[in-house]
Design a protein that fits this description.
The chain has helices at 2-18, 24-37, 41-67, 78-107. It is built from four helices and no strands. It has one domain (2-107).
Length: 115
């Protein structure tokens, strides 16, 4: 049981170190759109991955649009991988929660009474 606890703590520390670098407003907007797009549980994995791609692309485009600077894509190194993995986990959890809430609320709709 101790190795499992150690692995969980390592994962949690890794995830928490990547969280401060996430643009929260952009993340909320993308997660809300992603939560509305998800149609099934397997598609959640794909939508979360697409959300990461969109997030990284928009973060590269925003400075180029605001400051008329050249478009600079992120450098693919360990730091970026850490950021992308943390971003994927965050999107997976938030989009999954939105999807679950949407499914629960769709099942709780009142039935139509016929007269």
């Amino acid at each position: 049981m101790a190795p499992l606890t150690q692995d969980w703590n390592d994962f949690w520390n890794y995830f928490q170190q990547g969280l401060p670098h996430i643009n929260i407003l952009l993340g909320i907007i993308i997660a809300l759109v992603g939560g509305m797009i998800v149609g099934s549980l397997p598609s959640l994995f794909v939508v979360a991955l697409l959300a990461v791609v969109v997030h990284v692309a928009v973060e590269a485009i925003i400075p180029a649009m605001q400051h008329h600077a050249p478009l600079v894509l992120p450098t693919f190194n360990n730091g970026f991988a850490h950021y992308a993995i943390s971003l994927y986990i965050a999107y997976f959890v938030v989009i999954g929660a939105i999807f679950l809430l949407r499914v629960i609320l769709a099942g709780a709709r009142p039935t139509r009474l016929e007269t």
